[in-house]
Structure formats: structure tokens, C-alpha cells
Design goal:
Blueprint (H helix, E strand, L loop, with lengths): L2 H6 L2 H12 L3 H13 L6 H4 L8 H13 L3 H12 L18 H19 L5 H4 L12 H8 L5 H7 L5 H19 L1
Length: 187
């Protein structure tokens, strides 16, 4: 971490940034990202900028989550770019049935994770990004959850349309999201 950050950041912020950088499992790194965001300290952004170009898309998404939650538009832009990126040029951790690394499975996993991150953000600007994904076979099952987490009632009509999806799991996800959104709008 640059010494300029060390002089202006809170000690706990410095420790969390170091933990974010050293944590190798993306899901553990996300837990650290949530702790960083809770401090509301924007001094973390400069040392995390390189993470916005990380080869591991899920770890890139974790950094983008921090940026977005701290009010930097690059965060939402990076998460949206992960959703749109279908290039096989990426870090591949997903393994196919034959035991080989699978870029196709990795793309699906990365996109699913990005759609999930949009729900974790709870940012209404993500609603127009998510709604078209209700028909995207790779990520559609997580989209209702994300829309419900955001809590914007503009998602209700598209979620009602998703109740006609041929996939039972998708219909159930849409129904749970609608129940949550309707409870929130009636309170």
C-alpha cells in the first residue's frame, strides 16, 4: 500500500485493505470488502484501483463493489462490464466434467457473481441493467433476488412477466422477489 495512504487512513482501514489484497478466496475477500465499505473511508480507493483490472473477475467485482458503495461510478461500470464480458481471456477456475478448466463455465460464474453483486449494492441504477437479464439463461435465476434486494418497485412488472418462465426455479425466484417487494411497498 502506498505510504501516502498510510499517512491519511485510519489504522483499521489500512489493515482491511491489506487483508483485502492478501485474501485469495473471492468470497472471503467480499466479506472484507463489506467491512471496508462500512468504514466510509474513501482513502481506500487509490490503492484498490489496480483491482478494477484484476484478471479474476470475481475479485475485480469485489473491488468494484467497494468503489460503487463509496460513491465512485467506476464500481458500477466495472460490474456492468463483467456482466457483458464473454471473452474467454480471463482467469479460469471452473472445471468441466472431464476435469479441464472451462472458460465457458467461468464466464457463466463470473456473470452470475456480477449480477449478485448488483443486489448486494442495493443501487437503483442497477435495475435497468438487471431487468433484461431476467431472460438471460446464464444469470436469470439470481436476478430476481438482486432486484428484491435493491427494493425498487419498478422491478415489479418485469418480475410478474418472469412468472411465466418455463423454468420452475425461475418462477419461484420471481415469486419470492415479488413477495419481498410488495411487502416493502406496503410498509
Amino acid at each position: 500500500m502506498p505510504s501516502s495512504l498510510l499517512s491519511t487512513a485510519l489504522p483499521q482501514t489500512v489493515g482491511l485493505v491489506e487483508q483485502f489484497e492478501s485474501t485469495t478466496a473471492f468470497w472471503e475477500q467480499f466479506e472484507v470488502a463489506k467491512k471496508i465499505v462500512a468504514l466510509h473511508d474513501k482513502s481506500v480507493l487509490p490503492p484498490l484501483e489496480l483491482w478494477l483490472r484484476c484478471e479474476d473477475m470475481r475479485r475485480r467485482g469485489n473491488a468494484a463493489f467497494v468503489f460503487a458503495r463509496l460513491g465512485d461510478d467506476r464500481g458500477l461500470e466495472v460490474i456492468q462490464a463483467i456482466l457483458e464480458d464473454r471473452s474467454p481471456k480471463r482467469a479460469v477456475f471452473e472445471i468441466d466434467r472431464a476435469g479441464h478448466p472451462s472458460p465457458a463455465l467461468q464466464i457463466r460464474a463470473d456473470r452470475y457473481y456480477a449480477a449478485h453483486l448488483l443486489g448486494d449494492l442495493k443501487d437503483v441504477r442497477a435495475v435497468p441493467i438487471l431487468i433484461p437479464l431476467l431472460k438471460d439463461e446464464e444469470v436469470k435465476e439470481v436476478v430476481p433476488w438482486s432486484l428484491a434486494e435493491i427494493g425498487d418497485k419498478s422491478a415489479i412488472p418485469p418480475l410478474k412477466e418472469a412468472l411465466a418462465d418455463k423454468d420452475l426455479t425461475m418462477r419461484a425466484s420471481a415469486l419470492r422477489a415479488l413477495e419481498k417487494l410488495e411487502q416493502e411497498t406496503s410498509n
